Amino acid sequence: MKIKSSILVNISKFEDIIKYKFKNKKFILEALTHSSYSNENKSYSFNERLEFLGDSVLGIVISDYLFQNEQDLPEGELTKLRANIVCEESLSDVAKEINLGKHILLGRGEEATGGRDRISILADAFEAVIAAIYLDGGVENAKEFILDHMESIIQDSIKGRIFRDYKTHLQEVVQSKGESVISYNLVEEIGPDHNKRFVMEVSLDDKALGRGEGKSKKEAEQSAAKQALRRMI
Question: Where is the DRBM domain (predicted)?
């Protein structure tokens, strides 16, 4: 497939930002292609498979970094730290820093509804870019990209400046106000099986406090707890 000159210019500008030049432009093209664009341009492959791979590469790089550099922390604390660093919100923050949203190829409908700023789209594309670098240049280049662009989030998480275990925080707030029962309920499942989104609702003594969406039920629960905290604190 011949890549359009306008898209090659878009790729080149993004390469300048991330300071990595792809030998095979098809990897980064796929990483930057959202399913909505692929639906309108059938010859373009969208980035969900790369997202799957990038998630695993990201996980091993962050796990290795924490294992090597935080040797006094037990497994439970390392797990919490890693979850904080690789969560959807963290990834979307980094994606915004490298202006990833501007370079994603979106369909007209997704563009019109603010897709370039949507947390889930940004986080997914960031993981896809990681996979593209891994396939094009190997694990060391992927590792360099991750640690370079996520350094501030990693360090802030280690120092406790970022707290994104909203479920635990909500539980602590509720307990401080007296005995109450928190429950999480699945409200809706959105999308096909290979790209499903979950909507969860958190309730306090059967009173709904927040609702959140995520790629997994746990992620959606965290989002719901975050919304509940905003209402309570």
Answer: 165-233
